Amino acid sequence: MKLTKFGHACVRLEKNGSVLVIDPGSFSEESALDGAQTVLITHEHFDHVEADRLRRAAEANPSLEIWTNEGVAATLTGVPAKIQVVRHGDTFDTAGFGVRVVGEWHAPNHPDMPIVRNVGFLVEEEVFYPGDAFTPPGVEVPTLLVPTNAPWMKASEMVEYLRQVRPARAFSTHDGLLNDVGLGLVDSWLGLESDRQKAEMRRLKPGESVTLP
């Protein structure tokens, strides 16, 4: 399975000619959706979902499937795709990928903002994308897409999460708000934890791909 990082919080998975995209929000490149058969969306914030680009993707591919929670689904009424609502504990198959849903809520953010629903996705029992939360996956996770910067988190929480999950490999996500200095800090933090856990932990640049076992 091939994993490609796009801007900020978007990743693309490819396997046997099928394409699955997670969280193609407004900070990521719209080209992430080229040829996609299915899209997974963790929550409703604009940096994770943009209805207009999903509408264009669905017009280009009328069989496009979108899997997400009920809060996001309510915002996509104008998107001509097959929209499926999922919740914590659900499992499903889409475009040749097996997916397990893990998690229910976004991490607390601003005290005046409501906490929205947030579902994480474990794809092919290989890649876990928690969305905007540090949700315990409850199972062994070979590849973790770990949030590394956000208004709702601090660096120590990221490190604690990596130590809790102990993946074989971890790649940065949710890093689009950082300048070069901030990205350098992320690289340092992941490098230190990689050395400590004897595991591959690093930041992929936008457009960079890795092949997973």
Keywords:
213 residues; 7-stranded mixed β-sheet; alpha/beta; globular
**SSE order in H/E notation?**
EEEEHEHEEEEEEHEHEE
Spans of at least 5 consecutive residues with low confidence: none
Estimated structural class:
alpha/beta
**Subunit organisation of the chains:** single chain
What does the main sheet amount to?
A: 7 strands, mixed
Q: For the CA atoms, what is the radius of gyration?
A: 16 Å
Number of strands: 14
Distance between the termini: 7 Å
Helix count, per DSSP? Answer: 4
Model description:
It is a single chain. With 213 residues, the chain is an alpha/beta fold. The chain has 4 helices and 14 strands. The chain has helices spanning 51-60, 70-73, 155-165, 180-197; strands at 2-5, 11-15, 18-22, 38-40, 65-68, 82-85, 91-94, 97-102, 120-123, 127-129, 143-147, 169-173, 200-202, 209-211. Helix 3 (155-165) packs parallel to helix 4 (180-197).
